[in-house]
Amino acid sequence: MLDRFNRHITYLRISVTDRCNLRCVYCMPERGIELIPKDEILSLEEIADVVRVAADLGVRKIRLTGGEPLVRQGIVDLTDMIRKIKGIEEIGMTTNGVLLAQYADDLKKAGLNRVNVSLDSVSPEKYSEITRGGDLEAVFAGIRAAIKAGLTPVKINVVRLNKGYDQEIQAIKEYAEDQGVKIRFISQMDLRTGEFSPVEGGDGGNCEICNRLRLTANGMLKPCLFSNREYSVREHGIREAFLMALNAKPEKGIISDTHSFYNIGG
Q1: Four-way CATH pick for 11-263: 3.20.20.70, 2.60.40.290, 3.30.40.10, 3.40.50.2300
Q2: Of these four, 9, 23, 64, 205, which has the most CB atoms within 10 Å of its CB?
Q3: What angle separates helix 44-57 from helix 238-248, to the nearest 10 degrees?
C-alpha cells in the first residue's frame, strides 16, 4: 500500500486490549479509567480476519500491543492464528514484561518473533513508583525468559522522564549491556498538544518514513497516532476501512483528543 505521500505501508500495530496490570504515571491515570465494554472488543477471529486483509493489501509486519497484550485471554492462540496467515513475515509484541516469564516459551512456539519490554527504571523503588506498584523482579524474569526462548532481539523501551533522570538512564544502559539486549529511548509525548520526537534507537516518531497503521481493540483503524481520524472495520468493512485510513494518513502527526496511550498501544 502506498499512501498519498508515497510511503509504503507495511506495518500494522494491533491493540488487543485496553486493559493493563500496571498504571504507569505517563500512560494511565491511577483510577477513573474509561475502558471499552468487553462486548465491543474484537474477538480473536475478528483480529485474524483484519490481518488477512492487511496481508493481502501488503502489510508484512504485525505488532501486538495494548494496554498490556499479555492480559488478553487467548493471546498465544491469536499469535498462532496470525503466524499462519500468508504474507505476514514478522510478529512482534510490546509488553510491560510482568507476565512474560509465564508466556515466553508458548509465544515463541506460536510464532512470536521478538519482544520490546517497557522498563523505565532498574531500581525496585523507583520502578514501583513509576508503575504504581509494579514488581521489577517479575520484569527481569520476563526479560531472561524472552532471551532464553529466542524472542530476539529483545529490546527495552525507556521513556525519558523528568530532568535529573540521567543517573537512572545510565543504570538502565548498564543493565541492558549486561543482559545483551538493545535499548530505545522514547521522549514523553502529549497527544493533546502534538508534542513528540523521533525515538532514539528506533524508527518511531519520524513522520517522513512512517510505514504504519493502527488497529484499536474495538476495531477502529487509525492512520496516525496523532490524529483523530478512525475508521471502523465493522461499520465500513475491513478492506474499505483500510483504504479510508490509508487515504487519511497525514504527512505529519498533529494532535489527538479521541484516545490515550493506554488504549492505542503507543
Answers
A1: 3.20.20.70
A2: 64
A3: 60
